[in-house]
């Protein structure tokens, strides 16, 4: 449901999954459900989303799940980005990128590059944003994967902001 923008429905499903996984004592499942709740609870205040993601991050660290940790760091970065906290967002993305490079998780690497491009454009580094978006677009094309609708919308916003600053022709050349 979240992949097609139906966040309220996705939240209901993830809450049910979390309850079930907690009752079963499935720690890794609890971590993934908690992370998913942090990602789909877009109508909640930043602090609530951050609580979900921080709990998931802690569970992934305790269990040694590096992939889950990488995704939790991306979630942490997204909450920071959504609230305009660009420094913490960049730090979380750098950490996530390190984890995903270690694991050779190419789709996650592309997502990190796209989010780093958003940080770059929001801090006035439009040329760097264009390069990051170009690398992510090429990477996605080589993998044959698309962005989620929510990510695609954010990417389009980043592209539009960068093009306004450096111009469409310059953006295309980067």
Secondary-structure-derived class: mainly alpha
Percent helix, as a range, is over 70%
Rg computed from alpha carbons, rounded to a whole number of angstroms: 16 Å
Number of strands: 0
Distinct helical segment count: 9
Describe this structure in words.
The chain is mainly alpha-helical and 174 residues long. Helix content is 83%, strand content 0%. The radius of gyration is 16 Å and the shape is globular. The model has no long low-confidence stretch (mean pLDDT 86).
What's the topology here?
Blueprint: H1 7-24, H2 27-40, H3 46-63, H4 66-82, H5 86-103, H6 106-122, H7 126-143, H8 149-166, H9 168-173
Spell out the key features of this protein.
174 residues; mainly alpha; 9 helices; 83% helix
Give a short summary of the structure.
The chain is an all-alpha fold. It has helices at 7-24, 27-40, 46-63, 66-82, 86-103, 106-122, 126-143, 149-166, 168-173.
């Amino acid at each position: 449901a979240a992949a097609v923008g139906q966040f309220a429905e996705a939240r209901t499903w993830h809450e049910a999954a979390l309850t079930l996984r907690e009752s079963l004592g499935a720690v890794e499942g609890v971590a993934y459900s908690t992370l998913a709740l942090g990602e789909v609870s877009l109508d909640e205040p930043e602090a609530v989303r951050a609580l979900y993601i921080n709990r998931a991050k802690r569970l992934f660290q305790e269990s040694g799940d590096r992939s889950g940790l990488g995704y939790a760091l991306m979630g942490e970065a997204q909450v920071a980005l959504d609230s305009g906290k660009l420094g913490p967002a960049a730090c979380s993305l750098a950490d996530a990128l390190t984890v995903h490079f270690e694991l050779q998780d190419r789709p996650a690497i592309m997502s990190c590059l796209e989010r780093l491009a958003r940080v770059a454009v929001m801090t006035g580094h439009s040329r760097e944003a264009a390069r990051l978006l170009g690398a992510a677009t090429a990477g996605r094309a080589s993998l044959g994967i698309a962005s989620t609708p929510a990510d695609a919308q954010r990417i389009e916003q980043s592209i539009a902001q960068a093009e306004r600053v450096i111009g469409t022709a310059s953006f295309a050349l980067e």
